Amino acid sequence: MTGASPTPAPEPTDRLAVAIQSLYKARGMSLADPATADAYAVAVQAVALLIVDGTYKTGGLGQEEHRRLRALLDAAALAPRYLTGARG
Hints:
Blueprint (H helix, E strand, L loop, with lengths): L11 H14 L8 H24 L5 H15 L1 H6 L4
Helix pairs in contact: 2-3
């Protein structure tokens, strides 16, 4: 036993960021690239506003479903910041 503390498990948002980044890497892109990160932000915002919020406003989602989906999208929107270390 060395006395060293184990490496903490990555936070859920860190894991999500890495998973999303792997999708981009498979296509030769990176969310660390500012232009790609900007395009990603527009796509996440479009899904959040047009699909999730729109479906909620028209009665297709309940309040709790809407809250959960928006929380997931809000976390996904932070992926570029987690990858570049620009948190906060």
